[in-house]
Design the sequence.
């Protein structure tokens, strides 16, 4: 799909479809009004007739227009013109993309860049349009014997209304984010027999081949053994697939600039280990590597955008399986940090692989460390599938992620990490237990990680509820790539 800039006036424009906004109360957007004059009041007539109200996400496709080179018009409702918020704008462009994809149109011109969205500029509008249309094109057909029917749309041009509007930058950023999301979705949707720790390592190596600014390093189990990663390796012992510790470094700033470090849980299949999960829905545990997928997507976007930052992605990757050599409840392992861990439930394996990766992260003298993990079912119970759980030992980092999340429409909600919760992780036999009991499971998981992150500013994103959808729409979401790229863009702007 190509995204271009359009600045041809509507009276001389030729396109298969023009996308314009209308509002409620029969109000037309500027381009709808121009089009109305060019067509002897056609738009007004349709509104008068009641064919479209103009509420948020209403759409109406007009299949034929006489006397113009505009072959079709897609009217999109944006509700009240003075009170259009970011979320409603996104909802409307999602609807527009869906309607357009049900046609045979191959190129279209979108005038929704012109709308005034509360607290946003036209760069943001353009970016959202690119992200929404790209998302609507995603189909996972890598494992079907015949490819899915292709959506015909291949070119979308975005109207530049004012020369001062940076629509082109919006397109560039939107494309990089959308490609990062697409990559994250693809590796996440791949099943566990394809997407193994070895596969993830190969993806990182491939990315480094494609981008000069990226370099990949893969540590094997023997290397991890030398580093004393007894916790990570204990999880991998239960599986025939060898664990990998993947590091992908993006160098876009001075060598001395401290990097932003992302650590992504790359559990390519979580059967629970000896504390085996129930069978129903277990297939979805192929998604237990969505954190690592988001690291890959985010680094790809950073490289595409040539961000003036240094960034490191660390991916501890393993399966969690019930082998004869697997961890047993009650086993005690020693982490790279030296803390001993009593494994009371082998299904709480994410923290066991992350803790060693978080210790390893110190080697990069990080500016901040942000981990992303499908860590707890408890986070889904607490926040549902709307907000990602955010926990942090630093208020500034937490605020920065919150603000990026507002801009990116990739929601987070902060959970507390008070010392009192640490009590729940006490073990009679080791320094720390790997589970904290029935209550506050997302928080006690965060507390567990916090024991390994005391030396730097750190945030933890529990994406268990947000990284994929279940049911009929089962599939990866690519979250939190939009949030993380926005965080990076904000950091780049501040630098
Ligand atoms: N990967 C799961 C968390 C998960 C479960 C994410 C369901 C999304 C949907 C994690 O490894 C896990 O199994 N966590 C346990 C922890 C418990 C044993 C303390 C959980 O949440 O049940
Ligand atoms: Mn588990
Ligand atoms: Zn897991």
Sequence:
């Amino acid at each position: 799909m190509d995204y271009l800039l359009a600045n041809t006036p509507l009276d001389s424009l030729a396109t298969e479809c023009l996308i314009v906004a209308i509002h409620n109360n029969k109000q037309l957007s500027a381009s709808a009004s121009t089009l109305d004059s060019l067509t002897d009041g056609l738009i007004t007539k349709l509104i008068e007739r009641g064919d479209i109200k103009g509420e948020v996400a209403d759409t109406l496709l007009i299949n034929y227009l006489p006397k113009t080179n505009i072959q079709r018009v897609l009217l999109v409702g944006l509700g009240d013109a003075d009170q259009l918020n970011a979320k409603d704008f996104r909802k409307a462009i999602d609807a527009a993309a869906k309607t357009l994809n049900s046609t045979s149109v191959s190129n279209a011109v979108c005038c929704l860049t012109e709308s005034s969205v509360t607290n946003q500029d036209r760069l943001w509008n353009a970016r959202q349009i690119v992200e929404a249309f790209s998302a609507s094109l995603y189909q996972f057909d890598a494992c079907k014997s015949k490819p899915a029917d292709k959506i015909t749309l291949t070119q979308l041009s975005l109207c530049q209304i004012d020369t001062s509007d940076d629509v082109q930058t919006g397109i560039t950023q939107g494309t990089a984010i959308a490609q990062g999301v697409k990559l994250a979705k693809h590796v996440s949707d791949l099943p566990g027999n394809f997407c193994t720790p070895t596969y993830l390592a190969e993806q990182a190596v491939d990315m480094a081949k494609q981008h000069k600014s990226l370099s990949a390093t893969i540590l094997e189990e023997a290397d991890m053994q030398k580093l004393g990663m007894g916790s990570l390796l204990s999880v991998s012992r239960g599986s025939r697939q060898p664990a990998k510790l993947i590091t992908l470094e993006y160098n876009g700033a001075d060598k001395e600039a401290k990097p932003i470090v992302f650590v992504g849980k790359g559990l390519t299949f979580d059967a629970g280990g000896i504390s085996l999960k129930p069978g129903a829905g277990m297939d979805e545990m192929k998604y237990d590597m969505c954190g690592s997928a988001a690291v890959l997507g985010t680094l790809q976007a950073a490289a595409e955008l040539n961000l003036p930052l240094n960034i490191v992605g660390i991916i501890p990757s393993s399966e969690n399986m019930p082998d004869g050599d697997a961890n047993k409840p009650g086993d005690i392992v020693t982490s790279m940090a030296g803390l001993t861990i009593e494994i009371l439930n082998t299904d709480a394996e994410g923290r066991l692989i992350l803790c060693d990766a978080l210790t390893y992260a110190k080697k990069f003298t990080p500016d901040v460390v942000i981990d992303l993990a499908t860590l707890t079912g408890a986070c889904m119970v607490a926040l549902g599938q709307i907000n990602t759980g955010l926990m942090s030992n630093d208020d500034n980092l937490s605020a920065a992620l919150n603000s990026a999340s507002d801009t990116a429409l990739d929601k987070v909600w902060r959970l507390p990490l008070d010392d009192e919760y640490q009590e729940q992780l006490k073990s009679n036999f080791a320094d720390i237990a790997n589970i904290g009991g029935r209550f506050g499971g997302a928080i006690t998981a965060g507390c567990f990680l916090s024991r390994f992150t005391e030396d730097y500013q750190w945030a933890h994103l529990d994406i268990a509820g947000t990284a994929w959808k279940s049911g009929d729409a089962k599939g990866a979401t690519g979250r939190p790539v939009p949030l993380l790229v926005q965080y990076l863009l904000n950091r780049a702007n501040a630098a």
